[in-house]
Every structure is written in structure tokens, then in C-alpha cells.
Amino acid sequence: MFAVLKNLGWFFKREKKRYLIGLALLIFCGLVELLPPLLLGNAIDDIVSSSITWASLVQYLLMILGIVAVVYCATYIWMHRLFGGANLVERLLRTRYMNHLLRMLPPFFERNRTGDLMAKATNDLRSVAATAGFGMLVMTDSTIYLIVVLFAMGFIVSWKLTLAAILPMPIIAIGMVIYGRAIHKRYTLAQDAFGDMNDQVLESVAGVRVVRAYVQERADQKRFQDITDDVYRKNLAVAKVDALFEPTINFSIGLSYVIGLTYGVYLVFQNQITLGDLVSFNMYLGMMIWPMFAIGELINIMQRGNASLDRVNQTLNTPPDVTNAETTVDVKVPDTIQFRDVTFRYPSSTIDNLNNINFMLQKGQTLGVVGRTGSGKSTLLKQLLHEYPTGTGGILISGVPMEMLSTDQLHSWIGYVPQEQILFSKTVRQNIQFGKKDASDELIMDAITTAAFDRDLVTLSDGLDTLVGEKGVALSGGQKQRVSLARAFIGDPEILILDDSLSAVDARTEARIIDNIRSKRAGKTTLISTHRLSAVQHADVIVVLEEGRIIEQGTHDELLELGGWYREQYERQQVENNLTSEEVS
Q: How far apart are CA 453 and CA 158, in angstroms?
């Protein structure tokens, strides 16, 4: 049950001063709160014996008021310490969780749903963090405070009466064990269902245009209703067990009151305790109500924390699919890129997605990758990102196997523009500056001009400060591509990878961008995959892929002479371009 506290041991050690002060004051408050019942009992005995005076009555009242003031101040401090610690550990855990996600690579996100990852980052981490605040409170009150109250009842009033009053306590212990196991199981299911709901919401919001286009609003509402009903049912199952804690405790405490009052009156008549002692005992018995509830809350919060911790650890304990070698080689500049008999298969694939790939690029050269849809163009380019475990063969950069290079160093050389552009919900300027932090407006405009976005920029309402919306929804497909290109250009990377990133622009804009790349990136390596062969005519090496294999390789002129797929596709596109030009004219 206390595994969550054990796993948070690093935090308690780090914040030991905070928790020592908080717990010490909490225990101090528990001890001081024992005094008012004792004083009240003494006052009643003085009244019964007619020995009370105004001076002694005022003294009793002032002492009780003083104790209340001291407890008020000490309570403020321990609550600030303990619950402030809960907020602090939640921030630290969320930061650690986010950093872990940022280290993860595509295979991880293919195996895990975004909605479930978000649920772990919110509800689950909040449940774990609660153990560092409220959990420490209820643990202290259900153990130390309970022991102190029992000590006061047994040694200050009557040990016989105390033993009789705590006879119903085993009922609570048995109930807590049974309820705790049920809470852990049901809360895990409820959190899983919450993750499913998150995922459904994300899909519905991201695909709202498709949903509306196919008139699937009612069907989507029905799916969401079904999943929220499932979340409701599973949380209701948790609530049903949770609701059993209080009645069980109330029943046991009620029995304790009956036993304490009945046996206490008997002891008063037997002159074994005074009337004041009986009043003090019943006040102490009332003080036991919270520790009894604290036991139930302790079981509840620890089981919830354990269930959430198990889910979070499932993610945190997942190692990256690609890690740095124990000893890395430092390469200053990527002078050459060589694929030597590279064969690769995605973890989810049953066939080789690349087969026996061979080519060599010198620094400053351009590689064109073409082929039918699904031939492996993107897969080939992604090999340089080292996001998947390598297959057989070798990818050498400056003669060094890619596995021997630091991932950070490898990525620092690369500017990557994928097929599906991702823009952040920020301004055009901020999206482009993502490629080079704090880049000046002059550099930004140069990158925009290279990406042929300068003419579009003047049409935007606020220019560089125009908000692009979530995932660039305020921009057209071609505009999003060119902002993404500008983001890659601004860093002037040693290796630029364009993965079919000119598909949404017209032929003239594409030609302008290609001319800009050739002039601006002289001496830098560029890799371009495309369906439009005009984008790679200038390339030093062009490879034609078919089912993951290179079926043709050479320059533009050499491939035309071969008379294979490349020539056939080139002639077809030339005819299409001519027809388009005639229609426009």
C-alpha cells in the first residue's frame, strides 16, 4: 500500500526540512489539543466539588483560548509546508514526465495513445502528488495522533474504559483491507477509461472538419456519449467502494460511544473514575473520530496513488527505442553520407520496408528520391533521423557508423521538413524562430524569401505577428508548407531533408524555391523526396524506389537515357504541364 511513498523517497529526502517542520508541528498540534478536554474535565470536577472560583474559571478559559491560538498558528505553518510540498512534487513529476516524453521516439507514440498519455500527465500525477500532502497528513493523524489520543484515554482517564471502547476497532481494520484492494483495481480501470475519453476528444476536435464533411456529427456524439457513460460507470464503481468507508467507521465509532458511555457510567457509580474523567474521556473519544476517518482516507489515497503510480511508471520505465552508444565519436562536419547495404523494417511491419539500399553523397551534393506512393521514400530519408532501431547494413557519416554518433550532434546537423507540417499555435515569427532561437527579423525575412512566402506574408492581417491557429489552421496547405520550409532554412543546417514538402505549392513557386535552395545552400547537403520530378532534376544523385528497393539510380540525364520508370514518369508529367499551360493561356 505504501509503495507510492517509497517511490517518492527521493523527494522526501530532498525536501526533508520542509517535511520535518510540517510533521513536527502537526504532531505538536495533536499533543496540545489533548489539553482542552483535560482542563474541561478538571473544571467540571471543581464545579462538582464546589471548589471552583472566578479566578480559577478565568484561568481555565484563558488557558483554553491560548491553546486555540497556538494551534491556529502552528496549523497554518504545517498546512503550508505539507500541501505546498504536494504542489512542488506535482510540478517536479510533471516536468520529469514531459522530459521523458520528449526523449521518446515515434515507435513509442505508435504504441501509446495521446489521450492516455495526457490522462497520466494530469489526473494520475495529481493523485500521486496528493500523497505528498494530504497523504502525509492522514498517515500522521491515523497513526501518531491516534496513538497519542489512545495514550491520553488510557493513562490519564482509565485504561479499562479505553480497552472496552476500542473493541469495535478490528471492524475498521478488516473493512479497510477489503475496500483498499477494491479501490486500487477499480480506480485503475477508471483512469484507463478517462484516457480513452481524452483520446476520443482529441480525435473529434482534430478531425472536426472531416466529421462535418461526412455529416457524422450525431455518430460522433453517440461515440462520445458511449465513452463518457463508460467513464461514469467506472468512476461510480469507485465511488460505491469509497462510500463504504464512512459508514463502516461511523458504525464502529458509534459502538465505541455506546460501550464507553455505558461502561463509563458504571465506573463512575463504582467511584473508579470521576464525572469529569468521563466527560474528558468522551471528548477524547470524539477526537478519535478524525483519526478513524483518516485510516479510511489513508487507504483510499494510497491505493489511488499506487494505481496512478503504476500507470505513470509504465510510461517512465519505458526506455527510448534508440539510445546513444556508451562511447560516441565526435565528428565536426558531415563530409559524406553513405548507405551501405541498408535493409530496414518498421517494428509493426512484417516485410522489409527498405532492401539493400546503397548510395554515397559528398558534402554539398543533392540527393533526389522518387518513386510510386508507398515505395519507401519517406522511410529512406527518416533513416538519417535515427528514430528507429537500425536494421542491417550501415549508414556512415564521414565514415563513422551513425550508431556511434551522439543523437544530439546528429540532429544538430539536420533541418527536417516532413510531409505533414506541424505548426504551433503561435505567430508566424515564433514558428520560424523555432528553427533558430531569437533569430532577428532580417534572418526571418531571408528564410521567408528562400521559402517563397514573402508574397503571402503581406496578405496576412498582422504580418509576422499573425497567429496561425492550432496546427496552422489559419493558413492554407501551401502556406503551411512554406512556413515549415522557412523554419528549416533559418538554421542553415548542414543536412536539409525535404520529405515531399513541396506537394502543396504550384509549379512556379516550386521552381522558385528550388532555385533559392540551389543558390543559398551551395556547399550544404540536401535530400529531397518528391512525386514531381522537376524538383529533383538538378540533383547530383537520383534514386528511384520500388517496394523499398532502388531500381534506378543516376543523374537526371542518365535516368532519361535508361528509358525506365523515371523517363516514363517524366514524360507523363511534361505532357500534363503542357496541357495545364494551354488551359491557363
A: 87
In 214-322, which ranges are E strands? none
524 with 470: CB under 8 angstroms? Answer: no
Ramachandran angles phi, psi of 549, nearest 5°: -115, 150
Contact 543, 558 (CB under 8 A): no
Q: Which amino acid is at 520?
A: K
Nearest to 518 by CA among 500, 534, 503: 534
> Are the C-beta atoms of 371 and 531 separated by less than 8 Å?
no
Residue-range domain boundaries for the chain: 3-316, 336-584
Count of Cβ atoms closer than 10 Å to residue 154 Cβ: 18
Closest CA to 552 of 282, 350, 370: 370
| Model confidence at 470: pLDDT above 90 | no
Q: Give 465's DSSP letter.
A: G
Long-range contacts, 271-276 (Cβ 8 Å, 24+): 272/158, 272/160, 273/157, 273/158, 273/161, 274/41, 274/45, 274/48, 275/44, 275/45, 275/48, 276/40, 276/41, 276/42, 276/43, 276/44, 276/45, 276/48
Q: How far apart are CA 548 and CA 355, in angstroms?
A: 6
Residue 25 and residue 77 in contact, taking contact as beta carbons nearer than 8 Å = yes
The predicted model gives 318-335 an average pLDDT of 86
C-alpha distances (whole Å) from 429 to each of 461, 463, 468, 487 are 13, 9, 10, 9
Into which CATH architecture does domain 336-584 fall? 3-Layer(aba) Sandwich (3.40)
pTM of the predicted model as reported, rounded to 2 decimal places: 0.73
Distance CA 499, CA 383 (A): 12
- What is the C-alpha separation between 468 and 58, in angstroms, rounded? 72
Q: With contact defined as beta carbons under 8 Å apart, do 407 and 459 qualify? A: no
Q: What is the CA radius of gyration of the chain?
A: 36
Q: Are 533 and 506 in contact (CB under 8 A)?
A: no
Spatial CB neighbours of 488, under 8 Å, sequence gap ≥ 6: 415, 416, 417, 435, 496, 498
Question: Three-state SS string across 408-465, please?
Answer: HHHHHHEEEECCCCCCCCCEHHHHHHCCCCCCCHHHHHHHHHHCCCHHHHCCCCCHHH
Topology at the third CATH level for domain 3-316: ABC transporter transmembrane region fold (1.20.1560)
Q: What percent of the chain stands above pLDDT 90? A: 19
Cell 491560548, located at residue: 66
- Please answer whether residues 415 and 489 qualify as being in contact, where contact means their C-beta atoms are separated by less than 8 angstroms: yes
Give me the chain's average pLDDT, please: 85
Inter-residue contact 417 to 501 (CB < 8 Å)? yes
Handedness of CA 162, 165, 171, 172 (dihedral sign): negative
Q: Is 475 helix (H, G, I), strand (E, B) or coil?
A: coil
